Model the fold of this input.
Amino acid sequence: MTAVLSPVPPLTKPRKARPFTVAERTLDTGLRVLVVRRAGVPLVELRLRVPFSGRAASHSAKASVLTETLLSGTGDMSAVDIAIALQEVGGSLNVGADPDRLMVSGNALSSGLPRLLELLADVLNGASYPAEEVIGERDRMIERLRIARSQPNVIASEALLRRMYGDHPYARQIPEPEAVASVTAAQLRSLHTQRLVPTGSTLVVVGDLSPQRALDRIEAALSTWDRPGKAQLAPRLPEIETGPIVLIDRAEAVQSNIRVGGRALRRQDPSYPGMQLANLVFGGYFSSRLVENIREEKGYTYSPHCAIDHSSAGSSLLLEADVATEVTAPALLEMRYELGKVATLPVTSDELDSARQYAIGTLALSIATQSGLASTLSALLASGLGPEWLREHPLRLAGVTVDDVAQQAAIYLAPSRLVTVVVGDSTHVRPALSTLDEVAAG
Amino acid sequence: MPVRAVKIPSRSYPIERTTLGNGLRVVIAPDSSAPVIAVAVYYDVGIRSEPEGRTGFAHLFEHLMFQGSATLEKLEHFRLVQASGGVFNGSTHLDYTNYFEILPSNALERALFLEADRMRSPRITEENLANQIAVVKEEIRVNVLNRPYGAFPWLSLPPVMFDTFPNAHNGYGDFIDLESATVDDAAAFFAHYYTPSNAVLSVGGDVDVDETLAMIERHYGDIPGRPAPHRPAFSEPDLTVERRATEVDVLAPTPAVALAWRVPDPIADFESYLPYVVLAEVLTDGDASRLRHRLVQGDRIVTSLSGYLGFMGDPFDVRDPTALLLQANHPAAVGVDRVISTIDEEMRRLADDGLADGELARVQARIAAHLLRELDPVLGRTLAMATFEQQRGQAELIGELPALIGAVDEAAVVAAAAALTPERRAVLELVPGGTS
Done:
């Protein structure tokens, strides 16, 4: 790429990141705790992850209302009391759920860590789900769901996951309004007691702290969170059945949301590094074939992207592009062309090296901040991996060959194994899409 | 309740600065805690400076700056950054346009070169212009035209509040204007605004200051100097009569409302401006905030609510005129007048009765934590340093801001609340036209 006369300065010798030390302890309650000192700014970041999958169709509604009301009161504190106590230490706690887990993310001034932990323990042990607060939140959530489901990217994401996973909980990322309307405070208290349990859960704390003292503080604060039961993991993912393009009509839409999905390898699979790099070369970063083709050459779209999503029951390939209505079929044709090309022809060594350096470099960037390191460690633990993965994975990436990439691309990027969903103005886009493939109304 | 005022911590960064012979201002904040660096160039031209008939041009031009440069073909910029293990982006704001990359520290000189190469001359062709007009149109479709609430309120409220083209117009651009842009327009825009003397180069992270200064001299020193353009004031008088307008959003399922009041000049009168930054959080940060407590939790007349400074949510990188904004989604069954009158009631209560014990201290602690959190990433520091240097000559503010927020007193916050009166505001109602 850089010839002898190139004006582009060469890279100098890379400097190694200072290794960080992870202090770890599993409490008697079963909670696994990781603490890392990272003194960039005088703050602490906290991630509590509780596996929180559920097979019942009503689970996502209950989980969603629970996350929105976990901080709504305890025996002796109201929602406002909790919010005030958090602000006093410059802190915040946010609660979210997806089909895999419930996550409490928090941060505070580092002097506020003891108070932050105390408040976390208070809600884990004593969240009371006041009936009035639950009713208020239900009503607000139903309104917010209407707004969410008016967004084309939400419509497209739901349609693709339904197409890929059918009845599996992963197809239910956000709840149905009817299910939300019937959630009761008693159900939340019971779900909390049965499922918000320390065994199987992980707590990661990163920041300007002393690791051993922080571990002791965490143990002192959270040893009271001691409840029997084991966190529940999602069931096995079904095989994806290929078939026609599913077209969801959105009358008069000025763009079509094209979504293509398939299975992917888990991070611990020995072939994963090859698949990760194959995906980057194809469409996983800006310098990919996909972006250079349908954005920088043809101007069909603003931000096409292909990502690997890791969930506990398995990993998925998710390819997306929002394109002008009039070029919907040509854009899908180019997407399939690039998939087919990378699946059948070897990538160049320049392409491989670029993707490799990007993967290694951005991994280092992602853990260069307190919050990035906390989130990354939490995600690794959820995948059954440990902090050592951060050190070992770059070495595995360094060893990936053009053949490795070809092998994985032939499996995971092969268009014949992927499913396609399009959200757009059916009247305008269906005729041309039908020239490429069979089209079914979704 | 006892007042437990937490001590507001700070984090200061040593900052080196210089100005090159061609007028380019340089700030460097070394920090070797991680082997990463960030490089950013800020040009002092934004949406407010684009010419009439060329709405969206500042942003379109930002795209063009990625299309090849003095010695690089199209696509090479992207590839060189990413193949070095880094990421890049650019963004267009009311008062500036920035370009930045974050990379492993062994790519420092490469990053400096990449920015210098396009400061020397971008490579703008008919083909690249047509391509990027198409890309920008898709960007606008994704973010505005195909998205419910897409223009609300950042594009649709300024024309209610302001009368002059620079402040009122749609900075994303009308398609007709975008399609009318020419290569000559771009060349003229570059010649006028993209001069070294109209830019700040900001470098942060794992760098040696002397080596970095030498590299900067090597790559930027011989870029010919040109005079910096004159920047008009863009000022407009405050409102004295309430202005109200309605936006019909055919894609939106439920209504929303946004209110905006002018605030003091963030540059010339920073001391009077900061209380409004605190006020926005007193009103809307978390369940203990005034408006969330009353409208969301108490009366349950809105489903979500936010309050912030600047139309682009940019409290510390925008010049006068700017505003404090409140926006809320409310159920159709709740009339917008009830939402507004309840906000007025809370504002009067704050103005009449003052703050509760401890209320100011806890909000200041939370703002400080939030500001510190933005400084932790090397990119966050490098960007913040660039705007503070460009607009105020004060890059050091990145470390000083938490203490300045901590020094705002109750009387100033109460006075700010008292100034948010109905007759000084602009109101935009979003009326849903959707069918869901």
